[in-house]
Amino acid sequence: MSGQQRELTMRFLAEPTDVNYGGKVHGGMVMKWIDQAGYAAAVGWSGHYSVTVAVGGIRFVAPIHISDLVTVRTKLVYTGSSSMHFAVDVKARDPMGGEERLCTHCIIVFVAMGQQVPARPVPVPPWTPTSEDDQRLAEYALKVMELSKGIEATIEAIAG
Ligand SMILES: CC(C)(COP(=O)(O)OP(=O)(O)OC[C@H]1O[C@@H](n2cnc3c(N)ncnc32)[C@H](O)[C@@H]1OP(=O)(O)O)[C@@H](O)C(=O)NCCC(=O)NCCS
User: Which CATH number fits domain 7-159: 2.40.50.140, 3.30.230.70, 3.10.129.10, 3.90.1150.10?
Assistant: First the structure.
């Protein structure tokens, strides 16, 4: 498939309307940016419309200030049959100067969907990690999803 790329970067400007009660960018907006970048990365990799199935290991490390230039970087770290797992870093900096800061990181998982009605998951081109770093990232993504599936199962068992 042509045009496939493993990494994708999107940039956003934190607007005054993105503010939370403490005067910083609210977490929901950061998650929206992550979802948008993940969507662009997933459809680019798979060539199919894709849906978010899970977000795991999300950590808000530092706040984003209004008027910051925000950079969202996605890196494909694992593919299953229909799923694509991306490691996402969100960094921000004052566009008038200053250091870029890591603000949020997570793993987001998309599933490629076919065109039939109702739509069902379809296979994606595989990503095969070769370097040690890539193998570690793939293992990390799988661990995060195992943990989050485990939490779901526990909640279901408790809630009945
Ligand atoms: C995504 C969806 C089609 C999966 O349906 P499903 O019946 O679970 O389908 P499958 O069992 O075939 O699973 C498809 C893939 O999802 C993965 N998956 C399912 N639940 C998951 C979870 N909790 N975490 C991570 N991956 C998960 C499976 O591992 C499988 O991946 P693989 O093909 O690489 O092995 C369905 O859950 C859905 O439509 N969800 C809503 C998506 C949506 O609307 N997103 C936007 C919300 S903001």
Answer: 3.10.129.10
